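Model it.
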Amino acid sequence: MNSGWRTSGGRIRIIPTPEKTLTAGALILALVASTFAQQLPFSKAGTGQPPAPPTAATPAPPTEENAVEKFLDGKIPDALAKGKFDLNVRLRLEYADENGVKSVTSASYAPTVRTRFGYTTAPLYGFQAMVQSQNTSVIGSEGNYNEAGSNGKAYKPVIPDPPVTDLDQAWLGYAYTNIFNLKGGRQRLDLDNQRFISAVDWRQNLQTFDAATAHVQPVDHLDLTYSYLWDVHRVYGNVSGLPAADGDYHSDSHLVNISCSGWDYGRFVGYAYLLGLNNAAGANNSCATYGGYFAGYAPVNDKLSLDYRTEFAWQENYGDSKLQYSADYVNLEMGANYQPFAAGAGWEDLGSGLNTGPAGGRVAFRTPLATHVFDGWAGMFIVAPANGLHDLYGYAQVTLPAQIPLRFVYHKFDADSGSGDYGQEFDFLATKNFGKYWRVLLKYAYYQGVNAAPPVITAPHVDLQHLWAQAEFNF
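Modeled.
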């Protein structure tokens, strides 16, 4: 029955019908359900969706102060802790006796000990640093030998190991994988067989270079090296009293070396060494050298192998040199190894050219930054004669069962220009390693002069003997 309007005693009453009552109840239930649904969305069974996961809090990014603190207190100490110390101690007795020079009346005895100590950091984002120092001390009196002219003992043969404490290396480097590396500061440089650029590690004090060096390997088997040198610290230590010619060099020099090793039995190297060198003696050791060589090793069978080298270079004056000349360089060498034996022969020619500068005369091919092992161990031809030098040499070696190699070398010296006979030399070497760190050595050189005078002696018919006995610890 539908609801209607009814009057009773003058009042109007609304009388609900059953349909109206049902509709009102439904509205009340809907309002209640809506209220609870807003408080717990999709939390009841049958809603078809899982509960919403809790929202994770986003951590705040590290502050710049934390990153700097991590670098200073973490990365740097770690690179220092993982670095490497090096130590080298070399005890040597060197004896030199010279006959045929009237001003030399007594032999030289030089017992010295060289201590070299350094530290290299571990790489840090490609950067690395090194510092190394050395001290050479004389055991006994310094008057027992001629310290390269620095101690007034000109009546004795020269042994160029004066007592000195020096900073050998101090550099900072950067490397990017094996493609590129850069090094700046005081460093040692040994290029190829050290004929032109060397640290001269045979002497007690290293020859080191204040330089910037870049090495690039753009593709496999191709290596490019460039160095700029602004100072050269020589083996004499720049101590007081040295002759002017033995002082350190101020330098404005460029070194370029390109190596290609893509062949099975050798590699080709091309180079240009533009040396602008000045010291108190002047700049005449400045020179520009351009050349290249091919050297390699080839096995013949399981026991026999051959090694070989062929090299050519030409040189001219450079920088502030007062000389005007050009000269050539040639080196040919062939050797064979048949264990435990080895033998070989070679020929080296340091050419000579006319000097068209004010002084006139002739000028020889020069190697002012080379090591000492070339042209005989007695050191008679550290400076080539003005007429140049032919060095015809041969060697033989046998390794004894106790792993003791014995090596004998013979040299015959003649002038490149003219008929001067510079004599001959006999050299002998024996070495023995003990474990990883110890090595002993015995070395002897005997030079016999004839009718031409080597530059370092300036007298013909001179005999010179050198003997070295040493023990070395290298860690």
